Amino acid sequence: MQLGQIKKGLQVVKRDKQSIGQAMRLAYYPVVAVRAEGSKVWDKDGNEYIDFLGGAAALPIGHRHPAVVRAIHEQTDRLIHHPPLYGYHELAVELAEKLNQLPPGVYPRKTIYQLAGAAAMDLTIKLVRVGTRRPKIITFLKGYYGALYGALSLSAFSTVQRRYLGPFLPEIYHVPFADCYRCFFKQQYPDCGLACLDYLKTVLRHLVPPEEVAAIITEPVGSDGGYIFPPAEWLKGLQEICQENDMLLALDEIQTGCGRCGSWFLSEQYGLIPDLVAFGKGFSAGVPLSGVIGRASVMDELKPPSAIGTGIANPIVCAVALAVMEVIQKENLIEQCKKMGSYLKKRFEEMKKDHPLIGDVRGKGMLIGVDLVKDQKTREPARLEASKVCWRSGELGLILTTLGESVLRVCPAYNLSQEEADRALGIIDNSLSDVEKGKIPDKVVASLSPW
Ligand SMILES: Cc1ncc(COP(=O)(O)O)c(C=O)c1O
Fold first, then answer.
1. Does residue 447 surpass a pLDDT of 90?
2. Residue 251 β-bridge partners
3. Structure confidence at residue 117 (pLDDT)
4. Which of 35, 57, 95, 123 is the 20 to 30 A CA-CA neighbour of 206?
5. 89 to each of 113, 239, 286, 391, how far by Cα in Å?
6. What is the position in ligand 1's atom list of the atom closest to the CA of 146?
7. 253 C-alpha to ligand 1 centroid (Å)
């Protein structure tokens, strides 16, 4: 398929550029969606795509699951808006009761809702500060927490995203994440003895007094940084530092939560007991819902009205989230996610043998990254090539994007069918070959703005 076949779509893209500030965009192959179902999307020109982006990891049960559509219709007929900032509705309570059961560890919890992942991270900053009466926060290079000012103060992935926007929130200290494929210290795990953890301890010895640190805030997987899976030992090490120094451990599970890595929250698999867990994305199938589930004693320190917002915990959104959780349970989708995720990962590992572009394949469940490199030895990110692979995949009928510098992002719905999986894998295989053979000219991706 050639770009000429997305004629009507390109007219929309042109109007978009004229009418919408492009700062809200990461531009890849231009799919102008008009309809979607399950793992399929159709564009304005009638082209069909398999969706490997899954609404940016926000569609665990796919597009327009009948249970979600029903929940929206039924709730629309009853009550659309009654802001919990002034009143009550039972759906918000029922949802919080369920969410409070999900993170690992047995202790009393409460939930505070927000609208976007970034807002949940802003709230996390408030909670750790007020909950400890300490100002300082430790977080990590290559992390991404969202684009609001608080979340962006934590984020340290893209300098373009931060450029000219400072000053950011003070007292936030960034140290290296445990990125074992591109180690900050050019070492090899496990021989490194976790040099990154030692570095953090050095910072706490010489620069940042631990008794002034409210929390370590981290993602359990460096998500937008490139699906970077740290060793379990590193995460446990962070927890130990928190316990020894009365700091809180606050996890951003916005992308890894809702079963995506094979358990409701990934922290469970590492034996972590976080004090606060931020959630978003998957729990609400594309409608705006996020929040923080946390230790009741910490949540109660934030006094009303410190976390209010007109549209927060909207009844329709809560009804959707309850439907999503029910579908995942009834259809046993976390198991399916693990099974299909293992299959996809295995197929990518096999592809690595034929494609010099593939440097590394990382993943758990349906959160898989295929790291493209210019050279398998130097591991230099193949940025341009990754954009071209996404572009070619778009032409062949697959919505594919990157994260990190050159990592193909695979985060489809858990109920992706075998046929869809195989078709998508075939498209990626062909796209990699076409890019390796130099069939995609630089100019086709020149005007794009990937991560
Ligand atoms: C780990 C993580 N935290 C926070 C965010 C921000 O979420 P939102 O885009 O809903 O503000 C994202 C979004 O990609 C994310 O992946």
1. no
2. 218, 277
3. 98
4. 123
5. 13, 36, 21, 45
6. 6
7. 9
Give how far Cα 271 sits from Cα of 103, 104, 234, 265, Å.
Answer: 11, 8, 12, 11
Phi, psi of 446 (to 5 degrees): -60, -35
Q: For each of the domains in the chain, give its residue range(s) and CATH number, in order of start.
A: 3-61+332-444 (3.90.1150.10), 67-328 (3.40.640.10)
Task: Calculate Rg over the CA atoms of the chain.
Answer: 22
Helix (H, G, I), strand (E, B) or coil at 140: strand
Burial (CB < 10 A; 0-12, 13-18, 19+), residue 131, is: buried
Cα–Cα distance measured from residue 358 to residue 361, given in angstroms and rounded to the nearest whole number: 8
Taking the centre of ligand 1 as the mean of its atom positions, its distance from the CA of residue 178, in whole angstroms, is: 20
Amino acid letter, residue 65: H
1 C-alpha to ligand 1 centroid (Å): 33
- Buried b or exposed e, range 216-244, using 16+ CB within 10 angstroms: bbbbbbbbbbbbbbbbeebbebbbebbee
Please list, in sequence order, all residues whose beta carbon lies within 8 angstroms of the beta carbon of residue 233, skipping any fewer than 6 positions away. 190, 194
* Ligand 1 pocket test target in 139, 152, 224, 403 with most atoms within 8 Å of CB: 224
Residue nearest (by alpha carbon) to ligand 1 atom 4: 145
Structure tokens at 146: 């969202």
Q: Quick one: 345 exposed, middle or buried, by C-beta within 10 A (0-12, 13-18, 19+)?
A: buried
Overall size of the chain counted in residues: 451
Percentage of the chain beyond pLDDT 70 is 99
Q: Which residues line ligand 1 (CB under 6 A)?
A: 56, 116-118, 121, 144-146, 219, 223-224, 252, 254-255, 280
